Amino acid sequence: MQFIYQVFQESPNPTYIKDSKGKIIWANDAYAQLHGTSLPQILEKGALDFDFSYERDIEVLSSYGINEIEEFFKLEDGRGVWYLTVKKTVDQENGTRCLFSTSTEITNLKETIQVAEDSFAAKEKFLAEVNRELEAPINAIISLVRLLKQTFISKDQKRYLNSVLSISDYILDIPKDVLEYARVEAGIVDLTTEVVDVVAFTNGIVQSVASKATEKGVTIRFVEPTATLPTIEINPVYLSLVLVKVIRCAIRYTKTREVVFSIQQKQRVENMLYLQFSIRNIGLDQNSEDLAKLFDSENNFYGNEKYKRSGVDLGVYTCKKLIELQGGKVWLDKDIKQEASIEFTLSFPIVQSQASENSYVPALDKSIHPEHSVELKLLLVDDNESSQALVKHQIQNWDTKIDIAGTGEEGVKLASKTVYDLILMDVELPGMDGFEATSAIRESEGPNQRTPIVAFTTNPGNIDLEEFKAAGFTDYLRKPYHAFDLYLCISRNTGHYASEQLKNNKEDNEKEQLLYDFSGLGNMAEDAVFIRKMQKLFIDLVPGQISKLSLAIQQKDWETVALIAHSLKSTYGNIKVVKAAEAMKKIEQISTSRTNLSEINRLMGIVTETTQKVVEVFSRELDLA
């Protein structure tokens, strides 16, 4: 026992033990040093002067199991350190309970994660720049080829020009494919979901690429399933990406000049639907062996030097990885005639009829479209086929007509001739980008000089509203977005709204939905018992911490203010109480810099009001549980 005691006493990991009432009965020197005090003082008082862990420790003592949290401390020399703290209750032989807590420093890990995130952001920016540099000359080539195809040329010349179009499209996709590949390899997965009729969704994707296929002399035929498929929940961003890339791969490799796309139910197990997607009639050429290896799940083909020389589609490889990440399987089927088909299976949650009726997805909720967008005329300016297909699918039941432009120049041209109720403008466009196109529309004397223009942006950082307003944008929508976000954006900017009942229901629902969100907790968000504990913990601890924060502000104890604000920022951030988290972030910055101190009272007002609302909602839900 003496040896074990000595190990913990000399450990560099801050460690302490509390009794059942939360009094510190043992601690090591590392714990005392972390809090800038002496060990005898801690043991004499049985507590720290400011013990921010007290409420959490009492909660852990009243329950069983292990509690893990990340904590931030500011040292006397000004350095900040991160610790992973593990708290566990221990029952002693006499029946009393105590709490054991030990912390391991993870500052280097946190910094490494931040460096990795910054590195990916830099890579994303670089690839976006490369994409812009490529798009202008490649689109010029495409335009010239289209003009040539309208002249008197032979069949062979037409075939050559189709090959040029195919190669040009492939080159344009490379930076985007590299970025998607980097996202997959980095484990950055978008979790956006949408409830859809999968047949209608898939048909919309097929139609979106049909015109490109026609340019290259290829016909796409969509074969619907014979049996009616139930409504399912999908990730629209990834499913549309997979479908577009795989179909375009088929167009690239086919020799039969016809591609047949079909979808069928493979299996249904309880509330899960397993679908098989087939792209058939691909005539294989000299790259067929490499293409087959690409779909071999056991072969890490992309890392092979032979792959790099073969020219096999990186976009398809990325789609393969996306399918496998979602638990699906993809393979290449060949027959004796050297015709082939790309096959892949995916599983989707089935949405029960009651859930569908309560859903706020515009494509399925028939109460949305009767009056809110009748006779609305929209212009979508976006060069991405997947994005075009997604928007067309999302508004298909809204009685809304839409024109589509693939470039900024084409968007400005359409806007100079036709009156639109709203223009949806992608910011990252080839050649003339969205900012330039919007400025051109605003500066013209055309019919859409004052038409609302919404910016579509993939910028993951903070949006500079002044920059967007200066360019002439009315509003913005960050990709990826939910269908209802698009609906609200259109409604907000055109003055067309759904029935009063729908609006009131949605407003009431959104007040609670936007107030907090447990989805960031991962699988634990589905654990009702865990969520109730989180809610009770919030009610028991957060109001008390706010009172301590108010007292520290009154006493102008800015170091304590910074520590409490940092802790509360994480608390709010974990359950996405956005307003309070942002306010706490600003309070932490103000208390650290000692500037704009007069702003703290306004921020505390936001925090207090938001917290009260969350407490009221959590209390109501706990009463109903």
Describe the protein in words:
Keywords: ATP-binding, Cell membrane, Membrane, Nucleotide-binding, Phosphoprotein, Transmembrane, Transmembrane helix, Two-component regulatory system. It comes from Rufibacter hautae. It is found in: Cell membrane. The chain is α/β, with parallel strands linked by helices. The chain folds into five domains: 2-105, PAS domain (Beta-Lactamase); 107-188, Signal transduction histidine kinase, dimerisation/phosphotransfer (DHp) domain (Helix Hairpins, Orthogonal Bundle), CATH 1.10.287.130; 192-358, Heat Shock Protein 90 (2-Layer Sandwich), CATH 3.30.565; 369-497, 3-Layer(aba) Sandwich (Rossmann fold); 518-624, Four Helix Bundle (Hemerythrin (Met), subunit A). It is built from 23 helices and 17 strands. The protein has helices at 2-10, 29-34, 39-45, 54-61, 107-149, 155-186, 198-215, 236-253, 288-294, 305-310, 314-325, 353-358, 369-372, 385-394, 408-415, 434-443, 465-471, 483-494, 500-515, 528-554, 558-574, 578-593, 600-624; strands spanning 15-18, 24-27, 66-74, 80-91, 97-105, 194-196, 219-223, 232-234, 258-269, 272-283, 329-334, 339-349, 377-381, 401-405, 422-426, 453-457, 475-478. The strands form four sheets. The chain has a five-stranded antiparallel sheet with strand order 2-1-5-4-3, with helices on both faces. Strand 4 (80-91) and strand 5 form a beta hairpin. Helix 7 packs parallel to helix 8, helix 20 (528-554) runs antiparallel to helix 23 (600-624) and helix 22 (578-593) packs antiparallel against helix 23. The chain is elongated. The two termini are 46 Å apart. The relative contact order is 0.06. Mean pLDDT is 76; it is low at 299-311, 354-374 and 497-513.
